[in-house]
Each structure stands twice: as C-alpha cells, then as structure tokens.
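pasting for ref
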Amino acid sequence: MNESDFNLRHQNQNTESKIVASLERISQAFRVLLWQESKEHALSPIQVQVLIFLLNHSDEKRKVSYLADEFNMTKATISETVKSLELKNLITKEYEPHDTRSYIIHLSQKGKEIADKTSYFTKDITAPVRLLDEESKENMLHSLFGIIRQLNISGVITIQRMCATCVYFRPSENGKEPFCKLLERTLYAEDLRIDCPEHMMKV
C-alpha cells in the first residue's frame, strides 16, 4: 500500500515524497504572493491571473472557452470572472460578427496597468532561482518540463504550450539536442519554452 507524501515517517525516507512536499511548499508561496497582490487591488486571485494572461496572450486565446480550459474551470465560473472585471472597467468585449455569443476579451488601459503591475508577484520566488548556477537551472528546468508533461498526459493539466507537446518539436536522439522544425534550429536548454506563442498541439 502506498504511503501519503505527507506521512513524515515515509516522507523522511523517500526522495520522491520530499520532492513532492517541496513543490507543495512552493505552491503555497505562489498562493500567498498572489493573494497579497490581489488584495492590494481589491481583486480575487483568479481575476489577477486572468488579467495577467490577457496581457500576455493573443486574441484567439482571449476567449471564455480558452480561459476555462487554461485555468481548469467551468465556462460559467470564468464568465462570472470576466463579468466582474468588466464591471471594474478592467476589460472590454469585442463581439465576433459571425457569432454574437462569442467575443474576444481586451484589457482596458486601467486593466493593462494593473495586469502589468501584478505580473511581478513572483519576484520573491524568482530571486532564489537566480542564485542557482546555470547547470542547476538547466537540470531543474528539464525535470520540471518532464513533470508537467506527465501531468498533461494524465489529464491533471489540460492545456500546455511547451515545446515537448508541439508538432514542430523533435526530441533529442543519437546524442543530438532537440530541434524545432518551425524555427529550423537546435534547441538548447535556454531555448526551451514553457509557453510558446507559435505552439501547435500534437494530435
């Protein structure tokens, strides 16, 4: 019978459980920092996350259906979030001429300012990462990519725009580095992307 990763007797003797517990601690830090930022602007954490997403992604991703998949929420929940942001004058809607039920969400000027400011809520997490040497950063990045990829395969994470899930990606083989067919270039560790605007999901 498998033991819980939070069972201290098991955790202290198991490397995998220590890693999982460490990731959970880091996720706590994200939640705390996001909550602090959201309180400052009288917003909910998901409203802040949506604003940051809208600031950094293209029109086809700025729709309720995509946001629902992105944040693993129902369309109704995301629609309520969008409605609240609209009432706060942080977003506007551009209805599509061929379907008046569908719309693209745009940030207002005030929304852009808040999205830009709140997007730095991770700075306290970035700071210790910067202290790592380059080899440690590359190893960590590869390990996290692998974990995220497996979570995507198992359905825990629904949307991924990382290199390994893209049709243009060619994995490393015969000692060669991975390759991007779109960019026509070898991908070294520093070139790998967790969120690529040109990403095309494998089918």
